[in-house]
Amino acid sequence: MNKISIGLAIIIFFLIGFSTAAHAQKNEVKDNACVGCHTMVGATKGILNDWSMSKHAINNVTCDSCHAADQGDKDSFTHNGFLITKAPSPGDCSKCHPDQVKQFNAGKHSLGWTKMETASRYKAIPNDMMRASMCEGCHSIGKVYADGSAGKCDSCHTRHLFSAEEARQPEACETCHMGLDHDQIEYYRTSKHGVITDLDRNTTRAPTCVTCHADGGTHDVSQGITLGSVSQGAFISDRNSGNDYITSPDGIIMRSITQEDFNSGRTTMLQICSRCHSESFARGVLEQADEIKRQSDAKVGEAIKIISDLYNDGLLDPMPENRTLNPVTGNKLTLTGHQTYSNTSEIEAEFFEMYKYALIHAWKGAYHMNPDYAHWYGWAQLNLDLEKIKAENRTLRRLAELEKALETEKTGTKAGVVPGFEGFVAIVALAIMISIILIRKRR
Ligand code: HEC
Ligand code: HEC
Ligand code: HEC
Ligand code: HEC
Ligand code: HEC
Ligand code: HEC
Ligand code: HEC
Ligand code: HEC
C-alpha cells in the first residue's frame, strides 16, 4: 500500500471515527470501525490476524468490546476519535465472563502482583525499568489495573487468540513455572505423567497441569493445595494464617493451615488422582511428598540455628548492621522470607541457595512425582549445602578464636612483656591456619 492510499484510509476512518466518537464516549463504539481501519492501513497486523482466528471474531466481539473506555477511566486516551485503553482488564472481561473472573480472584494467581510488590528482593532491584523485565514479567499474572481489578487474563490464553485449548497445554504455564526456584514444568515434563503427554499429545491417559490444578475448568488454581503451596509452602498448626506468612517451628517463614483444611484440600486432590489410580496408591504418593517436605524443612531448620548462633555471637562477616540495610527488615538477621541475595555474608549466601533452590526442588519435585528432582537436585543438594554451612561455621569460629588469641598476645606485648616461645608458636600457627583457610576458599 502506498503512502497516498494510507492517507486516504486514515482520512476515511477519521470521518467514521468522528461520526461515532459521540457513541464512543458512552462506551458504544460502532462495530468494526477499529477492525476496518487497522485492516486498511495495515496497523497491528499480527494482532488482527490472531483476533480473526479467535472465538471472539466469530461472535462479533471486536476490538472496542474490550478496549473501549469510559469517560474518566484513569488509563484511557483518545485514539482517532475513540476513547480507548491500551490495557483491557479482567473488569472488562467480566462483562461477559463473570464466573471465570470470580474463580480467578479466589485463587493465588490474583495475589501475584501485590505479594511481589511487598517483597524485599523486589525493592532491592535498582530501578523500575529493571523490575519490569524481571519480577513483573511473571507476577503480572496478578497485575492490578487502573479500574482496581487484578489478573492478566492473557497470561495463559495469549492475546489476541484467547484460546481455551492453548491454555490447557502445559506450555501455557511454562514461562513462569520454571527455573531454579519453582521448576514445575520440568518436574512435570520428566515425570511419568509428562512423558506420556509428550509421547501422545492427544491422550487423556495422563494428567496435564490443568487436570490437577484447574479441575472442571475452574480458574481457582489453589484448589486442593495443602502443605505444597507456593513459595515455602505451609505447615500444620491450630490456625489458618490465610495468605499471611508466619514462622514455622523450623524457623522458615511460610503459611500455616489447620488439620481440617489439610484434610479437605487433600480430599479434593485425591478425587482427581483416583480417576486413574486407586485412592490408596495416590494417597501414599502424596504422603511421601509431605514427609519429604517435613524432613527437608528440618534440615533447613538446622542451618537457621547455626547461622542465628553466629549472629548472636557477632561472628557474621559482615554483620547485618554493617551492610546496606535490607529494604524491609533493616539491620535484622533475615533468613527466608525477605532474605536478599545481595549485601549478605558468605554463609548466608550458601543458605540462600539451600532454602530457595535445593529445599524447593526436594518437596515440589516430590509433589509432582519426579524422583530425580526430589532426590538429586533436592535432598542430596540440601544435605551438601548443610555440610558447607557447618564447615563455614567452624571456620568462622576458629578464626574468631585465633583473632582473640592474637589480640591477647598484642595487649601482652604493649604491657612490655617480650613475646616468649609460646607467643611465637601462636603467631606461626595463626599464619598457617589463615593460609589453609584462604587456599581452601579459593578452591
Ligand atoms: C483511522 C484509523 C484507526 C481507527 C479508526 C482505529 N485505529 Fe487503532 N491504530 C491505528 C494505527 C495506524 C495505529 C498504529 C499507531 C502506532 O503504531 O503508533 C493504531 C494503534 C492502536 C493501538 C495501540 C496504541 C498505542 O499507543 O500503543 C490500539 C490499542 C488501538 N489502535 C486500538 C484501536 C481501537 C480499540 C479502535 C476502535 C475503537 C481503533 N484502534 C481505531 C489506526 C486506527
Ligand atoms: C477479548 C478482549 C480483546 C479484544 C477483542 C481485543 N483486545 Fe487488544 N488487548 C486485550 C488485552 C487483554 C490486552 C493486554 C492488556 C495488558 O497489557 O494488560 C490487549 C492489548 C492490545 C494492544 C497493546 C499491546 C500490544 O501487543 O501491542 C493493542 C495494540 C491491541 N490490544 C489492539 C487490539 C486490536 C487492534 C483489536 C481488534 C482487532 C483488539 N486489540 C481486540 C484484549 C482485547
Ligand atoms: C462482549 C463480550 C465479551 C468480552 C468483553 C470478552 N469476551 Fe471472551 N468470549 C465472548 C464470547 C461470546 C465467546 C465465545 C463463547 C463460546 O464460544 O461459547 C468468548 C470466548 C472466550 C474464550 C474461550 C475461547 C475458546 O477457545 O473456547 C476465552 C478464553 C475468552 N473469551 C477470554 C476473554 C478474555 C480474557 C476477555 C477480556 C480480556 C474476554 N474474553 C472478553 C465474549 C466476550
Ligand atoms: C504469567 C506467569 C504465570 C503463568 C503463565 C502461570 N502462573 Fe501459576 N503462578 C504464577 C505466580 C506468580 C504464582 C504465585 C502467586 C502468588 O501467590 O503470589 C502462581 C501460583 C500458582 C499455583 C499455586 C497456587 C497455590 O495456592 O499455592 C498454581 C497451582 C499455579 N500457579 C498453576 C498454574 C498453571 C496450571 C498454569 C498454566 C495453566 C499457570 N499457573 C500459569 C505465575 C504464573
Ligand atoms: C492459569 C491460566 C489461565 C489464566 C490466567 C486464565 N485462564 Fe481462562 N482458561 C484457562 C484454561 C486452562 C481454560 C480451559 C478450561 C477447560 O475447559 O478445561 C480456560 C478457559 C477460559 C474460558 C472458556 C470457558 C468455557 O467454558 O468455554 C474463558 C471465557 C476464560 N478462560 C476466561 C478467562 C478470563 C476472563 C481470565 C482472567 C480473569 C482468564 N481466563 C485467565 C486458563 C487460564
Ligand atoms: C498429577 C497432578 C499434578 C500435575 C499434573 C501437576 N501438579 Fe502441580 N501440584 C500437584 C500437587 C499434588 C501439589 C501439592 C498439593 C498439596 O499441597 O498437597 C502441587 C503443587 C503445585 C504448585 C504449588 C507449589 C508446589 O510446587 O508445590 C504449583 C505452582 C504447581 N503445582 C504448578 C503446576 C504446574 C505449572 C504444572 C504443570 C507443568 C503442574 N503443577 C502439574 C499436582 C499436580
Ligand atoms: C520466571 C517467573 C518469575 C520471576 C522472574 C519471579 N517470580 Fe516470583 N514467583 C513465580 C511463581 C511461578 C511463583 C509461584 C510458584 C511457586 O512458588 O512454586 C512465585 C512466587 C513468589 C512469591 C510467593 C507468593 C506467595 O503468595 O507466597 C513471592 C513473594 C515472589 N514470587 C516474589 C518475586 C520477586 C520479588 C521477584 C523478583 C525479584 C520474583 N518473584 C521473580 C514466578 C516468578
Ligand atoms: C488422567 C489419569 C491420571 C491422573 C489424574 C493421575 N495419574 Fe498418575 N499416572 C497415570 C498414568 C497413566 C501413569 C503411568 C503409569 C506407569 O508408570 O506405567 C501414572 C503414573 C504415576 C506415578 C508414577 C508411576 C508409578 O506407578 O509409580 C505416580 C507416582 C502417580 N502417577 C501419582 C499420581 C498422583 C498422586 C495423582 C494425583 C495428584 C495422579 N497420579 C493423577 C495417570 C494419571
From TrEMBL:
Key word Glycoprotein present:
no
SUPFAM superfamilies associated with the record: Multiheme cytochromes (SSF48695)
Q: Which domain of life is it from?
A: Archaea
Gene3D superfamilies named among the record's database cross-references: Hydroxylamine Oxidoreductase, Chain A, domain 1, Hydroxylamine Oxidoreductase, Chain A, domain 2
Q: InterPro entries from the entry?
A: Multihaem_cyt_sf (IPR036280), Multiheme_Cytochr_ET (IPR051829)
A single Gene Ontology MF term assigned here is: oxidoreductase activity
Please verify whether the record's keywords include Membrane.
yes
Transmembrane feature ranges: 417-439
Q: Which UniProt keywords apply?
A: Membrane, Signal, Transmembrane, Transmembrane helix
In its UniProt entry, what is this protein called? Uncharacterized protein
The organism that produces this protein has a lineage beginning with: Archaea, Methanobacteriati, Methanobacteriota, Stenosarchaea group, Methanomicrobia
